[in-house]
Each structure stands twice: as C-alpha cells, then as structure tokens.
C-alpha cells in the first residue's frame, strides 16, 4: 500500500472535505500523470474491484490496467465542477487533487464498463495492454479472500464502487456519495446502503483483505493458454513471445546489483513491499537474549543462528525462491498454509550447513518457511537441489515453539532447539520405563539427530524428543507436535507412569494424523471399566489432535483392554474416529464410545463408557440395553451392530463418537 501524503489544510476551506470548487481551476497533464504513476498499483486495484466479476480473472486484470492507463487526460482539464477533496491532515489524508482527479476518471471508466457488461454489449479488447499466449491473473488468497470476492460479486457496480471508496479509499459517507454522483451514479445513497449491507468476512472492513494479493492485479501469475494450437501455428508462438517482452517492459524489470536469484522464477511485477521482502539487508534479527525479556515467548523471540547468517547471496536466493519458486523447486505446505510471498521483511531464524544441505529458516509472523539446497548444488540457476517448505506458526507459545526441523532424512531428524531449551533426550514412546538418550545441543542450537518415526505396520518403536520436560514427536511438519496428557481443559506434560503407559499404547495410532498440520495431541483417560469375567480393568482413552489452523482436528476413542501377558503396552483398539467437532476438546470435554469385546472365555460383550458428565447410556439396534451411570456391559454376538446414545447430567443428549 502506498504511503499517503499528509498536507496542510487551507484556512479558507470549510470542514466538509468536498467543496464546489476551488483547488486551482485546472489539472494539467503533467500533474495527472505524476499522480497516476505514483499511485498506479492503487488505481489498478480500485478498477479491478469495481469491474464486473463475470469475466475471467485474466480478462479483468487486463481491463483494469487498460482503464487506468487510458484515464490520463489528453489536455489540461478543468476541476471547477468536480467534487475534488480538500487537503486534509492525518493518516486518512487525501492524496491531493491530482490523484482525486485521476481516481474519478478511473471510477467513471470502470462503471461504464460494468454498464456495457450488464447490457450484454460485445466486449472489445482494450487497446493496451494485450498479452497473447499467456493467462495473467492475481495470486489466489485464502478462504476469507474468496468469501470477500463472492460478497463483492453479489453487489451491483455502484455498490462495489461504494464499498471500495468507503473501505479501501477510506472516504466518509458524504464524500463517497459525492464522488459516486460525479462518476455518474444516479442513486449514490442506495449504492452506499447496499455496500453497508454486504455480508463480508472478518477483516474486510479494515483494508487487510482488500489489500491482499487476491485483489492485486499488479502481482500476477502467468499460465499458458492452448499449447497444442500454439505449437501448430508458429506465428502464434512468435506473437506470444513478443507479448511477453512487451508485458515485461510495461511492468518493469528488477533493479540491477542484486546478482542471480538461483532457482527463482522470472519477475512479473514489482512494488515497494515486495522489493523490501526480497532484500536480505532488511531481514530482521532478534538479539540473542530477546526471549528473556519478551512479552510473549515464541518464534519471534528466536535469535538468528547458524554459520551463514551473514551470507547475503544465500539469503537473497532463499527470499527470491520464496517469492517466486521456479518450476524445478518442490514446494510443500501443511494444510491451510499459504505459499505466497512475504508481505514485508521476514525474520531470520537460521542459516547454515546441516549435514549435506544448506538450510535457511525464516518467520513472517504467521508462517515458518524452510529453504534448502544441496550443498554441492549451491546457487545453481536451474534450481537443482532447492526445496521450499511452509508451515503455520501463528499463535505459538513457548510450549509449541520449542524446536523446528532443520533437516530430515530417511532415518533421522535434526532439530533446531529454542534458545530457552537447555536439555534434550531421545526417547521411545513404546518403552515408557526407559529414561532415553541424552542429546547434545550445539552453541548454534542444532541438536544431535534423532530417529525418524517409521510408519510401517509393525510399529516396533516410536521415537520422540523430550525438551525441557515437554514431549515432542515428528509428524512430518516443520514444527514437531507436542504430546500432552490429561483433561482437555487443562492438559499436562507426559510425566507420570500412567501418562507414559497411556501414550505407549497410543503412539502406534499417530500415523493417522501425520502431515495434517498438527500442533498438539492430547490423550485423556475418561473412564475405567471392570470387564466381564473378572479379567481385569480396561481403560477408555480419548486422543485428540489439534491443528495450527484450528480446523481439521481429529479425535479417536480407544479401548485399552487389560494388557495380555508379556505385552503390557499393546496398542489399544480404536473404538471410534471423528474429524472436527468438539468431542474430547476444551470446548466439549465429554465423550461416549462403545466397542464389541471378546472375553477370554470366548463370550462377546458390548462395552460402552462415557466421561463424567454422562449419567445414563442406552443401546438400541442389534443389541438392546440401558444402564444408569456411565458404564455399560451387555452380552452380544460377533458382528452385532448397536446404536449408542446417552444423557448428560444436565438432561442433554449425547451421541456416541463414530
């Protein structure tokens, strides 16, 4: 977003920000051109938002650029009858009469285009710019941007113009109404009311979504059109190449002096924020002791570590590939994580050689980004050996920011420990009685490698990492998942014998949540049940995996039967699985589950249990039974199917977890 210029108010103007006229009687071409060049991205964004959404995004981008480029007057223009803003001071100050004049011409042209589209008149291609052989379109945003785009598409063209003037340009309602009227909108008041009624997602009223890359027609992606026809017609290929050169000249080329960008794709557009994010000299670095005095201890308080933190060439390549990964660069992201470029200068966490790779870890407040390249292919322009990983890290705390993955091989994982971590041990979750192996942590925070958890069906071991009392395990993310034990309202560390035994019988079920962006996994023993026949006591355990993005949590209920002889930590039987919902979570710390169980004497039973809030359980269907309390045991047969429901102490119903 361009910086708005504050000006000094004239003493002869009224408090109304629009008047009938006297800001200098005319705007010359040079003044209008200066305003257009200075605020070109802002004007193109305005046109893009007002234009009809029915056309393809690529056509809409080209039309928005054409509307702005054709808004320059051919000669000196009078402003006497135009509602231009008086200069104002403060953060919402106008950008001067030149900008207001050009903005009005852009708004008129965009609304006129919308009227032609509504009348279904044939759309002629804009004189400039034109691109053949390529489809240019803005980068896709997240769910909020898509929701805002849908909300804007349901508005009329005047409604969209009113929305943009109010929420992007920050005009007051009277000012926006006068601009709309000057742009030819006959029912400006109704347009403002329509914009006010628009059902928009959170954040769209404070410019954050309107200024995102979803609505930035100057930050573009390029894709080919019909490749087969272009190959058949050589002339079309030649025309496409010329168009790409013209487009490059229009949008500008990167400044000289930065050197090669390695595996980065070509630059399509520039803006000050994007250029700042590409400059290694603008990377932020926290002091070594920042975490000791930080108000919130998380990744933002990590210092920059590693033997390559001052290697500007490496950092430049990492930032360039982040912004524009080339075709040969594999990009991996946890679910719900944006892979777009940084909005501004990022924070450097690590840069150095790890095993046989050169690794850079960056943090932009919302994500952790890992750039890696093979040490023997460093800086190759074809991108050989480069890779990019993204993971959500917003809302991290000291507990969830204890470590990050630096390098992962087929057998081992090497972590970068948080600066407040002073000890680390490698443990096997399936051997809760063993203390584990102490790991050395170097002065740069790099820990000794630990085994990578195997996903084979045998599940003979499950390596984990104990750092500063916290238990972590690798689930395929950049940040290891934290394992906890206890009530969902207040889970604790996995310390006591009971907690370790529960996780020993749960660990082999963790592959079900691998690669899902998991932040924490909590196991909770919600009931104990004496099993029929005097065979001992079974434990009912609910395990819930929470993600960094909030959505996508997974819950499973286990029936951990009395351990057979010689197998004290045999995996529990999964009684039910669920995705989403509140069961076993802090918002809904209650659960009901059931299982068919074969007793040692060969008889089958339907066993069910609920958490403490459950006051009665009823079984219907293939097995009939009802009990007051939260434990149910009913004789059954192999293959029986039953429906379970219960009642809570407050009278509400609860369904069994499925």
Give your account of this protein's structure.
By secondary structure, the protein is of the alpha+beta class. A 9-stranded mixed sheet has the order 13-12-15-16-17-18-19-20-21, covered by helices on one side. Strands 5-9-8-7-6 form a 5-stranded mixed sheet, covered by helices on one side. A 4-stranded antiparallel sheet has the order 25-24-27-28, with no helix packed on it. Helix 1 packs across helix 4 (96-118), helix 2 crosses helix 3 and helix 2 (40-50) packs parallel to helix 4 (96-118). It is globular. The protein starts with 25 loop residues before the first strand and ends with a strand. The model is unreliable at 1-24, 86-94, 119-125 and 249-258 (pLDDT under 50).
Summarize the model shown.
By secondary structure, the protein is an alpha+beta fold. It contains 14 helices and 28 strands.
Blueprint of the fold:
Blueprint: E1 26-27, H1 29-38, H2 40-50, H3 57-69, E2 77-78, H4 96-118, E3 134-138, H5 143-153, H6 157-167, H7 173-182, H8 188-197, E4 220-224, H9 227-232, H10 234-251, H11 272-278, H12 290-293, H13 312-323, E5 331-333, E6 347-354, E7 357-363, E8 367-374, E9 387-392, E10 403-408, E11 412-417, E12 424-428, E13 437-439, E14 450-451, E15 463-467, E16 470-473, E17 481-485, H14 497-504, E18 518-530, E19 537-547, E20 554-560, E21 573-579, E22 592-598, E23 604-610, E24 614-621, E25 625-628, E26 631-636, E27 642-648, E28 653-655
Parallel strand pairs: 5-9, 17-18
Antiparallel strand pairs: 1-2, 3-4, 6-7, 7-8, 8-9, 10-11, 11-14, 12-13, 12-15, 15-16, 16-17, 18-19, 19-20, 20-21, 22-23, 23-26, 24-25, 24-27, 27-28
Helix pairs in contact: 1-4, 2-3, 2-4, 6-7, 6-8
